[in-house]
Amino acid sequence: MAEAKAKKPVKVGSVILTVIMACVSVLYIAPIVFIAINSFKDTNYIKGSFFEMPVGDMWVGMDNFARSVSVSSYPFYKSVLYSFVITILSTILILLFTSMAAWYIARVNSVVCKIFYFLCVFSMVVPFQMVMFTLSQDATMLHLNTPWTIPVVYLGFGAGLAIFMFVGFVKSIPVEIEEAASIDGCNPVRTYFLVVFPLLKPTLISVGILEIMWIWNDYLLPTLVLDITKYKTIPMYMEAFKKSYGGNDLGAMIALILLSIIPVIAFYLACQKHIIKGVAAGAVKG
Questions:
Q1: Is 59 in a helix, a strand, or coil?
Q2: Reported CATH class of domain 76-284
Q3: Which of 55, 110, 119, 257 is deepest in the core (most CB within 10 A)?
């Protein structure tokens, strides 16, 4: 009979940390749960009974959802379309151009590259309010005020964090792999797309998730840059539920909030296993 393996002693610190992290998780999940609960309540009961379950007269079923997509004079499907177009195009631009720039910065150890890298990192601490008025004027002058051109603006604002993470990860890739590709006849472009780009997958996914969550939920930049008479994203569409004298259609607004966060949550859950791996890989040697 095999001897029973001795159980490892449970560390008190590990238990305390687990309890703390569980409480933090509940705090993060609670707002989503309450949003889901209140999306089925009558608007008149939301303020006074926000934490109660929708029973009896509180329950309105799908009325809030139906009203959220039809109350505005602006078509809801257009807001969804523009949000997807802006988010997808902006994320693709950020991932492609910043990863290429980061590879060049990491491999070409020159003074110009170092200055450019530190400028990109510095851009992360510059408040948006410092540049938003001049940005709005420049975007209009350069005709960047459409859903198909505003991704260029997002590329400028998202480049700092992306380059910081990509540079750290590229430095962890052995340069011998690229030298072997060069010996086999690959030029720099082929070396990047055939050798380096596939190795960047963990960081690509991590940066992609962070950028998608930011761009999808962004309200201020599209409001300042886009021609709001023609184009409205989902956060801009929510303005239709604001009424005069502080009155709001909370039921429809909360239902729309729930609809808007479902795509981001689904994407996050599908890719969450890559987040920690990518963030850690980009921070180790940055």
A1: strand
A2: mainly alpha
A3: 257
